[in-house]
Amino acid sequence: ETGVTQTPRHLVMGMTNKKSLKCEQHLGHNAMYWYKQSAKKPLELMFVYSLEERVENNSVPSRFSPECPNSSHLFLHLHTLQPEDSALYLCASSQTSTGKRGELFFGEGSRLTVL
Amino acid sequence: AQSVSQHNHHVILSEAASLELGCNYSYGGTVNLFWYVQYPGQHLQLLLKYFSGDPLVKGIKGFEAEFIKSKFSFNLRKPSVQWSDTAEYFCAVTSLDSNYQLIWGAGTKLIIKP
Known about the structure:
By secondary structure, chain A is mostly beta strands.
């Protein structure tokens, strides 16, 4: 049990589908993150929300759309994805205080396959 | 732009062997350094971190890492590995330059033969 729960764990979708990934944290943290994990590549930071406000967006294609309705929930809305978007999508949370920077708590990930 | 380099993508060792995984970063200023571990089928979790002070830091499960500023390195070590250490290990760095977001290495897959 990590304190960060992601659903679904596995998702297969066609290029014309619309789907969403959900993340929920039970740790009382005030920052949440979406990362993309692909084999043999460094983790790619997609979005960061701090106190429910997006503070980072690393030039992610618009077919990925994040939503953070409150400090405990984070969504990643997916539409018209490409096969190269197939990857493990990780949600994480953290405190933003100076001494806790970089200490992220991760969910188990959502394995996305785009056909 | 900052980068983090992990020298080996795959390492295979026998139980009881000593382990050292290399990590180098490119930023010349003040950094915070991390090692994360991902056991098979499990979530990424923090193994150890360096913020300041003693450059030799100890983490969970007998792991330690040494920060050598002159070499821009933060290598992970364990004197005697166990089969349960089979996992993927990620080095990461934060700094003012990265707006304190983690810059990740590509990871090293460690396989321990029983």
